[in-house]
């Protein structure tokens, strides 16, 4: 693994937060409230720096004063960091004492196969994976499957039965994932 920044103390609980790149207002608000409710606890937020829930999770962690680790689907070089729109967010993560990790060499450009590869790292680092929103077929569900294979807890946020981004979480609940109703549920799970 390649790293920039500071890897957090292993005394902390690592929570991987993943979800839809096209987060709904419900998903955004839920992600922010859940993570802000962890303020003051030794929890590290792990996510993939992607658009949507990933970047919302990183920003909420920064606002809550929590350490966050970003694992992009690219190398860590400034010219290839993906997505380019989140170079500023990556810089904020490093300035706040967090880290960027990648299984890829510094100048590796993101490819379709690199995202499932980085999902493997996200699930493996974490004590639990929280799925906020996900379509029935999505990269987010790859991360939850890997978490199960690695014997990690899978947590998910229920949503409206009429909302397509809730199909993935509802499927996970049917398969045994822990439904999360608030930050207290997250703390109990961790």
Textual characterization of the structure:
- This protein is of the alpha/beta class.
- Helix content is 37%, strand content 17%.
- An eight-stranded mixed sheet has the order 1-5-4-3-2-6-7-8, sandwiched between helices.
Give the key terms.
190 residues; alpha/beta; 37% helix; globular
β content, as a range? 15-25%
Shape: globular
Question: Largest sheet, order of strands side by side?
Answer: 1-5-4-3-2-6-7-8
Secondary-structure element series = EEHEHEHEHEHEHEH
**Alpha carbon gyration radius:** 15 Å
Short structural description:
It contains 7 helices and 8 strands.
Please specify the SSE layout and strand pairing.
Elements: E1 2-5, E2 13-18, H1 25-36, E3 43-47, H2 53-64, E4 68-70, H3 87-95, E5 99-102, H4 114-125, E6 128-131, H5 139-149, E7 153-156, H6 167-174, E8 178-179, H7 183-189
Parallel strand pairs: 2-3, 2-6, 3-4, 4-5, 6-7, 7-8
Antiparallel strand pairs: 1-5
Helix pairs in contact: 1-2, 4-5
């Amino acid at each position: 693994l390649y790293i920039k920044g500071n890897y957090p103390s292993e005394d902390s609980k690592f929570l991987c937060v993943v979800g839809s790149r096209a987060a709904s207002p419900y998903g955004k608000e839920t992600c922010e409230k859940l993570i802000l409710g962890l303020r003051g606890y030794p929890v590290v937020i792990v996510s993939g720096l992607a658009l949507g829930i990933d970047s919302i999770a990183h920003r909420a962690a920064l606002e809550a004063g929590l350490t966050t680790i970003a694992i992009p689907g690219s190398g860590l070089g400034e010219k290839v960091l993906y997505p380019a729109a989140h170079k500023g967010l990556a810089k904020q993560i490093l300035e706040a004492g967090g880290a960027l990790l990648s299984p890829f060499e510094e100048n590796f450009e993101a490819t379709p196969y690199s995202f499932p590869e980085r999902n493997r790292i996200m699930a493996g680092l974490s004590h639990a994976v929280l799925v906020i929103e996900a379509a029935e077929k999505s990269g987010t569900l790859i991360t939850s499957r890997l978490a199960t294979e690695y014997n990690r807890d899978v947590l998910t946020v229920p949503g409206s039965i009429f909302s397509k981004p809730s199909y993935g979480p509802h499927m996970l609940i049917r398969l045994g994932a822990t439904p999360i109703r608030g930050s207290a549920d997250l703390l109990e799970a961790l």
